[in-house]
Amino acid sequence: MPTPALSEAPAAFLLEERARGVSPHTLRARKGDLDKLVAHACGEGWEGWEVKPRVLRAFALELGERGLDPASQARILSTTRTFFKWLFETRRIAADPAAGLRNPKLPRRLPAFLTEPESGALLELEEPRDFPTSRLRCILELLYACGLRVSELTGLDLQDILAEARTLRVLGKGSKERLVPYHETAGRMLEAYLVHRGAFLAARELPATPALLINQRGGRLTPASVRTFLAKAIERASVRAKVSPHALRHSFATHLLNHGMDLRAIQELLGHASLSTTQRYTHLDLESLARTYESAHPRARTRS
């Protein structure tokens, strides 16, 4: 059992966190993290929270030795830093020994994406027969054809469709506007949706709205609704689970790069400020990459 010197401060910290309006989920997580810290302190015979930085580094090492994954270690250490900062600010300790405590290096996670056959199966799931099916097909086509963020898609107005140029005027992050082309198939699905959209508004006697994508009440469709539609479509198309609308944006970038588009051109289409961000969105097919390398590098081709 922890001594009062070790147990009272975490309890007081969590009470203050609750009073500040921290969510119950976060409070539960932080309590679990602090329980691990207190258990370590008891095992090492700490007399209180006035400890040296090397003592906390030993705690961090123990987390790794226990086999916790890097993300869990990082969360526990983040709670530890927050707790010791609070101890210092409330003058329970004279110095903050956790200020320089480092997280373990997290493995780089590649964003989820669809293969080309999976993308095709998803896009061809629905024919635009009526308002709901034409809307779903339009959503899927534009996400994949243009690499849009969901918020960019739902933010489109009718005036943003430059039909003659087959281009969308998109308002991205930081209110930066960009022009994104769409291909002929996406254009046909967009036109089909607009026909059903007009008929739907007329049949329901709903007022005209500038929003491209609308719900059953004639209001602008929300990103949450798009995510719900896509989740159901993915399940029906038997595509892998845990694929978000953003996965179509990743797929857009990956497939263009695999077919030879310049990375900087893809950066412009995605609206990324940094090329390094674009690189994270792309998943090169290694066989395709090897073939491109063999055909492109002057020293890679064999000579007779």
UniProtKB/TrEMBL annotation:
Signal peptide positions (record): none
InterPro entries documented for this protein: CB, DNA_brk_join_enz, Integrase-like_cat_sf, Integrase_catalytic, Integrase_recombinase_N, Integrase_SAM-like_N, Tyrosine_recombinase_XerC/XerD, Tyrosine_recombinase_XerCD
Coiled-coil spans in chain: none
Catalytic center residues: R149, K173, H246, R249, H272, Y281 (o-(3'-phospho-dna)-tyrosine intermediate)
Biological process, per Gene Ontology: cell division; chromosome segregation; DNA transposition
Any one annotated GO CC term: cytoplasm
Record domain Core-binding (CB): where: 4-88
Major localization class: cytoplasm
A Pfam family of this chain: Phage_int_SAM_1
Compartmental location: Cytoplasm
UniProt domain Tyr recombinase: residue ranges: 109-294
GO MF assignments: DNA binding; tyrosine-based site-specific recombinase activity
Record keywords, A-Z: Cell cycle, Cell division, Chromosome partition, Cytoplasm, DNA integration, DNA recombination, DNA-binding
Family indicated by similarity: Belongs to the 'phage' integrase family. XerC subfamily.
PANTHER family tied to this protein: INTEGRASE_RECOMBINASE PROTEIN MJ0367-RELATED, PHAGE INTEGRASE-RELATED
Assembly with partners or alone: Forms a cyclic heterotetrameric complex composed of two molecules of XerC and two molecules of XerD.
Its biological purpose: Site-specific tyrosine recombinase, which acts by catalyzing the cutting and rejoining of the recombining DNA molecules. The XerC-XerD complex is essential to convert dimers of the bacterial chromosome into monomers to permit their segregation at cell division. It also contributes to the segregational stability of plasmids.
UniProt name for this protein: Tyrosine recombinase XerC
